[in-house]
Specification:
Layout (H helix, E strand, L loop, with lengths): L8 H72 L6 H13 L4 E8 L2 E6 L28 E7 L5 E10 L5 E9 H7 L8 E6 L6 E4 L12 E5 L7 E7 L1 H7 L5 H5 L7 H39 L3 E6 L4 E4 L1 H6 L12 H6 L5 H14 L6 E5 L5 E12 L5 E10 L1 H23 L3 E5 L5 E4 L2 H6 L3 H4 L13 H14 L8 E7 L5 E13 L2 E10 L1 H52 L6 H29 L8 E3 L1 H11 L1 H7 L2 E5 L5 E3 L1 H17 L8 E9 L2 E8 L31 H11 L3 E6 L5 E8 L5 H10 L9 E2 L1
Parallel strand pairs: 21-23
Antiparallel strand pairs: 1-2, 1-5, 3-4, 4-5, 6-7, 6-9, 8-9, 10-11, 10-14, 12-13, 13-14, 15-16, 15-19, 17-18, 18-19, 20-22, 21-27, 23-24, 24-26, 25-26
Length: about 800
């Protein structure tokens, strides 16, 4: 139905004109809104692309900075030790760095002659990797002790790598360099999440330089919404990171504009629909903008997660307003909660140890004014009051006038590393102090026999100063005829581990500087440091001891000769005196028998005294001969039954037993004993006779002999109930001719116990006595078992007897 039919032409025109106006206005508004929406989308894509470039470049810069400082610390340790770090220690250190950094492909140590060490051993050749950046040679002193970015190299798989080198003085006047080779593509992949497919990313050597890694689309000038950000480090890498949103991401960011937006202006009838569409369009645009903002927040959260996941803390110092931001890891280093609020930069400076504050401020000033790397070590106060060692790094940002605006970097706790280093230094100092003050010569050699260290005592023992020995082969201290054997011993030990030298103490001969041989006591030990084998030799000069031993042996020989002569003289004199004594005794007896009636009382007493004196003198000479012969060897060694030998002694004293009514009891004597049976019987015959002689008046002597295992033999105990003696005499009675009673009361020469001691001592045993006056005496005899020869041992084993004692017996 024609709605305009009831109206005239003017009214229709009036109706049409407003509609035309509305249509024109609607189309104009729609076109303006569409144009504005496109501009907003383009600006959002550009902002997000730049944010992605900045965040990724910041993460990559931080990773390069940390890896660079790790290489600097490794180079600094090499420089401190003058390049003398053992290769095994360096490889262990390098392996630790390589294990957790997949983008670090290899580490090298080189000098002017070429590569010395490489880790891993199959790393790329040095000739194709290291360039001389800026035309600067390694010998220039201003490059020493600093990390520098080197040339870009190409791997066999087509990817690019970056070299970073750290030149240092090797302690001999030369220059060595530590080189690190980074896989740029691997590092770039590690700096971005695997799921991020919204942007193409690439790295170039400079702003307009060649592409090093990443997508070529990101550096294509025709790619829309492309952005870039510099990758900055303290050693001037100079890279630029390029980003560009992918086509799929751009399409997602450009919503489809429905035909209704454009058709809304065709007629006033569609004005309401067009307004609704515009409202819906505005709402959808707001959602898209919210998505863009969410993506931005996600990128910032990803950056924060990376920072929190790192082992070091991150700090940001606003220099103009003196503000300071510390990451949670940095707070935890000082014992503070992660959300601790920092008022200003005074938080940092106030916690630095007072002794370290000047050095830290000087490092900051040098970094501001001369561009020196900021990497000091200092102590900071922990919340609990103690100090922790920290290592900080940072980079300043300058404005267009060259004034510092802000400074950011990292900080890590190196307390354990410092403590380990200090403990190692203390141990080395203690060891050096011990060796330097030792009275014995101490030398340290390598597996080739080259002397690496020598203490001052070497000059006293060998005549060489320590500096004269270092660098020489230890063969110069070995007699000429043994030098080849020395080299063979060391080589044989290294190959087989079997040695008669290492781990043992031996007496050998060394060579003094003046050429004469000296006896030494040599002890060699081995110390392993990785693959290195170090031998420590301790040499003690035995010249004085050998001279003393020779003098002592000569004195013993002279003493033995003198004793032998005295014993021969004693035996000869005793033997020669017997004949006159026998004549005196015989003629005295003859006078008493044949001429007693012709002698008066005084003469008869004189003859009797003469005869008795001759008899006592004869007994004394017999005892002297027995005492002299008691020092001879043990004679025939046999295995016998002790109770049988004691019974033999009792039979030899049968008259004494009968006259005194004495009794003898043996208890727990060993079943067998190996020694000289005759002398064993002689000892106990003397002891039994002694007990009978010194029995109490009117009492029959009671004697008991028992035994028990003792040391390497048996301890025999003879006890009686006789008159006893004072304890202070218990040792004197074993002296030759020692008597405690007059001869008129107790007969004897005083040699019986002396003979017993000499026999027992000669057998390797001991004899002693215990007694109280009036309480009887106890004599202890320790008699060791004599060694059994092979034939005797076989005979014993064949018998199969394991009896050790007999039952108690009475005699």
């Amino acid at each position: 139905m024609d709605l305009a039919a009831p109206f005239d032409a003017r009214t229709r025109l009036g109706l049409v004109l407003p509609m035309l106006v509305v249509v024109v206005v609607g189309i104009a508004v729609t076109a303006a809104t569409a144009s504005r929406s496109q501009d907003v989308r383009q600006q959002a894509l550009e902002r997000f692309s730049q944010a992605e470039a900045n965040n990724t470049a910041r993460i990559l810069s931080l990773r390069l900075q940390q890896d660079g400082h790790a290489v600097e610390r490794m180079g600094a340790r090499l420089a401190i030790r003058g390049g003398a770090m053992p290769e095994s220690e360096w490889r262990a250190d390098a392996g630790a760095y390589l294990s957790d950094k997949p983008w670090l492909r290899a580490l090298y140590v080189a000098d002017e002659t070429g590569v010395q060490w490489v880790e891993p051993e199959g790393g790329p050749a040095m000739a194709g990797l290291v360039g001389a950046p800026g035309g600067t040679g390694m010998s220039q002193s201003d490059m020493l002790g600093r990390l520098h970015a080197g040339a870009v190299a190409r791997f066999e798989d087509g990817s690019d790598g970056m070299t970073a080198y750290y030149p240092f003085a090797d302690g001999t006047g030369g220059v060595r360099v530590l080189v690190a080779l980074f896989d740029i593509a691997a590092m770039l992949r590690a700096s971005r999440p695997a799921y991020d497919e919204d942007f193409d990313v690439a790295l170039t050597a400079s702003t307009d330089g060649p592409r090093l890694a990443g997508s070529g689309r990101a550096v294509d000038p025709g790619t829309p919404y492309g952005s870039s950000a510099p990758v900055t480090t303290s050693y001037d890498v100079g890279w630029t990171l390029h980003t560009a949103p992918t086509s799929s991401f751009v399409r997602r960011m450009q919503p489809r504009t429905g035909l209704g937006v454009w058709m809304s202006g065709i007629g006033l009838t569609l004005l309401g629909a067009s307004l609704a569409f515009m409202a819906q369009l505005a709402r959808r645009q707001a959602v898209r903008l919210a998505d863009v903002d969410a993506v931005r927040r996600t990128s910032e959260q990803r950056y924060n997660l990376v920072v929190r996941g790192m082992a070091v803390g991150v700090w940001d110092w606003g220099i103009r307003d003196n503000t300071l931001g510390w990451s949670p890891n940095a707070m935890r280093m000082l014992g503070l909660p992660p959300d601790h609020k920092v008022a200003d930069a005074g938080f940092f400076f106030d916690r630095i140890h007072p002794d370290d504050q000047p050095a830290v401020r000087e490092a900051i000033e040098a970094h501001f004014e001369m561009g020196e790397p900021y990497a000091p070590n200092f102590r900071m106060r922990h919340e609990h009051g103690h100090f922790v060692w920290c290592h900080a790094t940072g980079q300043v940002l300058l404005d267009e006038t060259g004034e510092p605006v802000r400074m950011a970097g990292s900080i890590e706790d190196i307390t354990e590393e410092r403590a380990a280093e200090e403990a190692r230094n203390r141990s080395e100092r203690r060891l050096r102090a011990v060796t330097q003050s030792a009275v014995d010569a101490v030398l340290t050699t390598n597996a080739q026999g080259i002397i690496e260290e020598a203490n001052p005592a070497c000059e006293r023992v060998f005549g060489y100063r320590p500096d004269e020995l270092v660098g020489s082969n230890i063969r110069i201290l070995t007699p000429t005829e043994h030098r080849r054997k020395h080299d063979y011993y060391i080589k044989h030990y290294i190959e087989t581990g079997d040695s008669n030298i290492v781990g043992k103490v031996r007496e050998v001969y060394g060579v003094h500087r003046d050429g004469h041989e000296i006896p030494i006591e040599l002890a060699v030990t081995e110390y392993k440091a990785g693959d290195d084998r170090i031998f420590i030799a301790t040499a003690r000069d035995l010249s004085a001891r050998k001279a003393g031993e020779a003098e002592r042996e000569a004195f013993i020989a002279r003493l033995e000769q003198t004793n032998a002569e005295l014993e021969r003289f004693n035996f000869a004199a005793s033997h020669d005196l017997r004949e006159p004594l026998r004549m005196i005794g015989n003629f005295s007896q003859m006078l008493l028998r044949k001429h007693a009636g012709q002698l008066d009382e005084n003469a008869r007493k004189a003859v009797e005294i003469c005869a008795g004196s001759a008899q006592r003198m004869q007994a004394l000479l017999d005892d002297l001969i027995s005492f002299s012969r008691a020092s001879d060897d043990l004679g025939q060694i046999e295995t016998f039954i002790p109770v049988d030998m004691i019974e033999l002694a009792r039979q030899n004293l049968a008259e004494d037993f009968e006259s005194s009514q004495a009794s003898l009891e043996t208890v727990h004597l060993p079943a067998k004993l190996r020694t000289n049976p005759t002398r064993f019987s002689r000892v106990f015959q003397n002891l039994i006779a002694n007990s009978i002689k010194y029995a109490k008046d009117g009492e029959a002597p009671k004697i008991q002999i028992s035994a028990a295992p003792y040391e390497q033999g048996w301890l025999f105990t003879l006890s009686d109930k006789g008159i006893g003696m004072r304890p202070e005499y218990c040792e004197q009675i074993f002296e030759p001719f020692k008597r405690l009673h007059p001869a008129s009361k107790y007969s004897g020469t005083g040699m019986g116990l002396a003979i017993c001691r000499k026999i027992v001592n000669n057998a390797g045993g001991r004899i002693w006595a215990e007694s109280e006056l009036g309480e009887g005496s106890r004599f202890y005899v320790y008699w060791p078992e004599a060694p059994m020869d092979t034939d005797a041992a076989a005979a014993v084993n064949m018998t199969g007897s394991d009896d050790s004692m007999t039952e108690g017996e009475s005699a």
